[in-house]
Amino acid sequence: MYQSMLPVTGAGLAIGGIVVTVMNMVWLGIAVVVIGGMLITLSKFGPRVAIEPMAVGVHSSRFRLTVNGRPVSWPRSR
Fold it and tell me: pLDDT at position 75, please?
C-alpha cells in the first residue's frame, strides 16, 4: 500500500536520512533553548551564590563563598 511512497534509490535514502537528522537536530536545539530559559527563570527566584576573589597580602588572593552578597562563615575547628 505504501510502497510507492518509499524511496527506491540510494539517493532517496540518503536525502531522507539527512532530512531526519536535520529535524532531530532542530528539535534538540529547541529543547535546549526551552530548558535553558526555564533554568534562567528559576534561578531568578533562588538565592544568588557566588565565589568572589578576596585580596590577601600583596600578590595573592583567596576566594570566598557569598550568598546574596554576604560571606558564608564556616565553623572553625580547634
Answer: 75
Residue 65 C-alpha cell reads as 563563598
Give the pLDDT confidence score for residue 29 in this predicted structure. 96
Q: Give, in degrees to the nearest 5, the angle at Cα 45 between 69 and 54.
A: 20
- The gap from C-alpha 43 to its chain's centroid, in whole angstroms, comes to 13
Sheet of strand 49-56, all strands in order from the earlier edge strand to the far edge: 49-56, 60-67, 70-71
CA 17 to each of CA 22, 27, 45, 55: distance values in angstroms, whole numbers, following the listed order: 9, 16, 43, 57
In the predicted model, is pLDDT for residue 1 greater than 60? no
Closest by CA position to 68, among listed 53, 54, 47, 51: 47
